[in-house]
């Protein structure tokens, strides 16, 4: 089929088959704190999801622009506005206000969307950094909410419902069930690029915990459960300044031959961690909107043992790809029998329900529903 080149203003757009000429043109973005893919040692699910979505949609032949800082690499069309990532010391040492730097990027995105007539802008950033610009610009906008909707600040979001060009997507049915009157376009599960999370059939010799070291994620409970079960625990994750006290009091005293803190690992090292793990522990203390680490672990063959909060029961098949438990003691009992879980079944659960292709197809459906007025 012949391909043509299109232009929007003075910007040349990628070639596409004539048969796809009426397809939508979508802009996707998250933060400008980091480039995509994320640098080694940085864990930020929102950015990972936005980048994987842009790549996958572009591979499917859709016309996608990824807005991200310099240094990013994508299969979609990249627009940086000449902005370096805020994590660059040359930037954050000169401009101490990261929120202004982020808002500057968002304003540029919506100016671009109006100038070049994008059909829809899809944000994976906090709604409070997006809604004002979407409202003023009038650009059709979909915001995927990655935070728990129970955060007090989210109570104000319905005040923007008068702007009929703004829609929201939830990450799970449990996420959307929070009583918040918003114009929901639907639910789309996060997906992972299965080429980046390779399967291992080895049973594993240790337990692991992956995530930010903060009270809500429950690393201290994972430590207790591992000690009770008599198994090694390897912990990987970022410690932010506000969580230093938690780490010093609840985690650090137990570090030694059985409990090991590996630091903030890059994607390849986390993949190896999952591949060698008997199970991932996720003893959360909040209503988890999704929990991307569960999907990453299962893709690598590691079963997941998690508290039954938020989206957990939607992601784990209890007794098949891990165990959904109610408390610390039941977590220990689950650890004792997790060796019976078929690791290949864990991988298949991700292939069938949480792949990047499945996520992309889900969002395409939402885009078209929004185009048709939902």
From TrEMBL:
Q: Where is the signal peptide?
A: none
UniProt domain Glycosyltransferase subfamily 4-like N-terminal: residue ranges: 52-172
Gene Ontology MF terms in the entry: glycosyltransferase activity
Q: Record's SUPFAM superfamilies?
A: UDP-Glycosyltransferase/glycogen phosphorylase (SSF53756)
Report the residue ranges that make up the Glycosyl transferase family domain in this protein.
203-342
One matching Pfam family is: Glycos_transf_1
What the entry lists under InterPro entries is as follows: Glyco_trans_1, Glyco_trans_4-like_N
- PANTHER family registered for this protein in UniProt: BLL5217 PROTEIN (PTHR12526:SF595), GLYCOSYLTRANSFERASE (PTHR12526)
Q: What's this protein's name?
A: Glycosyl transferase family 1 domain-containing protein
What species does this protein belong to? candidate division CPR3 bacterium 4484_211
Organism taxonomic ancestry = Bacteria, Bacteria division CPR3
């Amino acid at each position: 089929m012949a391909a043509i080149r299109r232009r929007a203003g003075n910007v040349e757009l990628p070639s596409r088959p004539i048969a796809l000429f009426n397809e939508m043109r979508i802009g996707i973005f998250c933060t400008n704190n980091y480039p995509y893919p994320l640098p080694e040692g940085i864990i930020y699910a929102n950015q990972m999801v936005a980048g994987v979505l842009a790549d996958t949609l572009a591979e499917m032949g859709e016309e996608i622009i990824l807005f991200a800082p310099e240094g990013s690499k994508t299969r979609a069309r990249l627009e940086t506005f000449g902005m370096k990532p805020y994590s660059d010391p040359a930037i954050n040492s000169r401009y101490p206000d990261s929120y202004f730097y982020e808002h500057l990027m968002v304003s540029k995105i919506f100016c671009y969307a109006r100038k070049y007539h994008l059909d829809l802008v899809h944000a994976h950033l906090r709604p409070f950094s997006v809604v004002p610009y979407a409202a003023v610009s009038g650009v059709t906008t979909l915001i995927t909410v990655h935070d728990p909707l129970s955060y007090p600040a989210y109570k104000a979001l319905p005040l923007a419902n008068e702007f009929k060009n703004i829609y929201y997507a939830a990450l799970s049915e449990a996420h959307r069930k929070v009583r918040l009157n918003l114009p929901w376009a639907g639910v789309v599960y996060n997906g992972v690029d299965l080429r980046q999370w390779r399967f291992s059939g080895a049973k594993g010799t240790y337990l692991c915990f992956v995530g930010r070291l903060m009270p809500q994620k429950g690393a201290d409970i994972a430590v207790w459960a591992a000690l009770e079960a008599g198994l090694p625990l390897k912990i990987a994750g970022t410690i932010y300044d506000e969580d230093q006290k938690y780490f010093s009091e609840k985690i650090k005293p137990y570090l030694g031959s059985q409990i090991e803190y590996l630091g903030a690992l890059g994607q390849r090292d986390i993949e190896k961690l999952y591949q060698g793990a008997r199970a991932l522990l996720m003893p959360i203390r909040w209503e988890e909107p999704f929990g991307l680490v569960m999907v990453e672990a299962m893709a690598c063959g590691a079963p997941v043992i998690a508290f039954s909060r938020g989206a957990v029961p939607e992601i784990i098949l209890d007794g098949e790809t891990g165990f959904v438990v109610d408390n610390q003691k039941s977590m220990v009992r689950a650890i004792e029998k997790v060796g019976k879980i078929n690791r290949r079944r864990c991988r298949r659960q991700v292939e069938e329900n949480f792949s990047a292709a499945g996520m992309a197809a889900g969002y395409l459906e939402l885009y078209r529903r929004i185009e048709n007025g939902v």
